[in-house]
Structures are given as C-alpha cells and as structure tokens.
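Morning - pyridoxal-5'-phosphate inputs below, output right after.
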Amino acid sequence: MKIKANNLKRQYELYAAEFDQKVLDVMHSGWYILGEEVSAFEREFADWIGAKFCVGLGSGLDALWISFRLLGIGPGDEVIVSSNAYIACVMGITMNGAKPVFVDSDQYNNIDSSLIEAAVTPRTKAILAVHLFGQCCNMDEIMRVADKYDLIVVEDCAQAHGNHWKGKTAGTFGKVGCFSFYPTKGCGAFGDAGAIVTDDEVLAQKFRVFRNYGSEKKYYNSVVGTNSRLDELQAGLLRVRLSHIEELNRERKRLASRYSELIQNPLIELPRVRPGADSVWHQYVIRCVERESLMRFLNQREIGSVIHYPIPPYLSEAYAYLGIARGSFPNTEKAADEVLSLPMYNGMTEEEQNTVIRALNEFRENGS
Ligand SMILES: *Cc1c(COP(=O)(O)O)cnc(C)c1O
C-alpha cells in the first residue's frame, strides 16, 4: 500500500459534490473577482475566527508583507520572529526593508518565549508570532513583552486555522492575523489564496484598498497598492471547506492522538503540546536522530514523509546576506536535523494509518 505524506485528492473527495456544484455556480454567475462569494467568505471566516473583519488576499505571503507595510514597518525597523519558521514569514518582513531579529525555538517548535525580551532593542517594532505545525505560541508571554515595550503583534496563522491558546482563537491576539489557504493548509483552497483578520476597521479598509491597486473607487487611486485579490472561485470553494472545518479539524486531532497512542519506538520522539496550547495538527512532526535512515526505511515501504524544514531561513542561500552563522540557534538547527512530518491528511483511512504505525514501530537502529 502506497501512502503519500499528503493526499489532496482525498480531501477533495470528502465533499466532491459540493465543490463541483460550487465551481459550476461561480462559472455561471459571470463574475470572477471580488464579488459575492468573496464578501460572504470574508464574513463567515471572520465570524468563525471571532474577529470583526476579514480581508481576502492572493496568498499567505501577501497577508504578511501587506500587514507589515500597512502597519508602517520598513527600513530601520526590527521584527522579532522565530528562527524556526517557514521562509515566507521572513520574506514578509524583509520585503518591506525591515530586519528580522531571530529568536531560537523551543521543544514545541515555536519561538522560545523566554528569550524574546532579551531580543528587544530600541528599533524593535513588532513580534511575528508564527503558530507552527498547528500549535499556538505562548501568547501570554508574547503579549506581555509586546505590552511592556509597546510592540505590534502580528500572528502567522497559516498553519493554525482554528486552534487556540487558553481557549482564545489564534489570529485574535495581535493587531492582525495572517492566513494562507494554500491547498495543503487546514482550510485549503484549490489554488493560491490568503486573508487577514483584524478588529481594526480603519486597518481593514486600508487592506481592501491596497489589495486592489490602492483604489477605493474604480480608476481613482489613493495609494500605490498591489494586486492581491481573492477570486470568486477560490472564495466559493473556501466557503464549502469552511462549512466542514470543525469536523476536518476533529478528524486531524483524532489521527494525531492515534499516532501518539500507538507509535512506540525508543528511537522516535513524539510531538509535545505546550500546556495551555491546542493543536489543529497541521503536521504531525516526530523527531528522530537517525532521521535519514528512517526516511529511507519508510520510502522502501512506499510511505511518504516530509522534512519541515531542512534549512532554517537564516541559513538559506536567500538570507546569506544577513550574515548569521551556523550554530546561532541550536534548538532550531537540531530540529532541522531531526524533524520528520508523518503522513497526515483528511480522509486518511485507519488501514493507511496502521501501516504507517507498524512501519515506525518496526524501525530499528541502522535503518534495518
Ligand atoms: C504556507 C505558509 C505561509 C505562506 O503562505 P502562501 O499562501 O504559500 O504564500 C506563510 N507562513 C507559514 C507559516 C506558512 O506555513
């Protein structure tokens, strides 16, 4: 049995009839960009998150860079971010000419909140809280430091649709919550899409203007904006997905708890959830010192797995210019050497999951 690390077709098939109907409805409507589907999705998504406003955008990266741009963060400013993040988190900062100031990660793969305060300088303007793999950062500590030094908090919820920190939804702590609806994400579209949520009406309106060439009224442009519009097809399909999101998140939690209960191998370290945090299990990320041989072993059994991420952003070629040496963030580098994301997707069968579990439990030292 061949098992992919992710299986997008399975996720489509769960609600195929509804998705198909929505595609036809939008095609027949004769309106394809920023219309009723987008407005309806923005309302429904804001309600679900518990924010006042949602603005649909072209991607998660757009949500990040436009947030920093409209919050006035640019050259000379610093933004604190986990060294263990996806490269887009860092690009959202550097695209505006601001400087990312990295803080090492902790055993939960998120920013080590006990190290944040020491990274604050007179130039610090914001903290980007990246809720990696579906688990919330320690928002108590992030909000405490932000309040103390008057910093803006932006949340990257691209992997955390609907998770919580002490009962409060990710995306509602900071000034802006940034979401991606890339197909593999918890609320995935069938193409690129993203959004921001905020309680600030003025800011929400600025996003609406900025995403559409800075124009509030057609052909009258108040600022130099961009083209980052959510289209009707993606918005319509996202509404279908959102109408099932609670059951989809529950299914992932169930898959995760089965993994945690049934994987028993001293060579494999299971993921931990921080007390107070909740996880929607965007990924189920184990650690294994012999990761390369484990991956080979799984491959031989036709079981897919993925490394999130093999190279921390500050060590990537793209950010060589930052001049940050290897060894700077030991926990992040250890994670890069040991993490492995197991197959995990909505529509995964018990038989498929049992096959993965059996393989993991049979893995021995030296890859035998
Ligand atoms: C996917 C992702 C992004 C970028 O979203 P895109 O829609 O691919 O631009 C940003 N941050 C994190 C943490 C992500 O996982």
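Note: The first helix runs from residue 8 to 14.

O.
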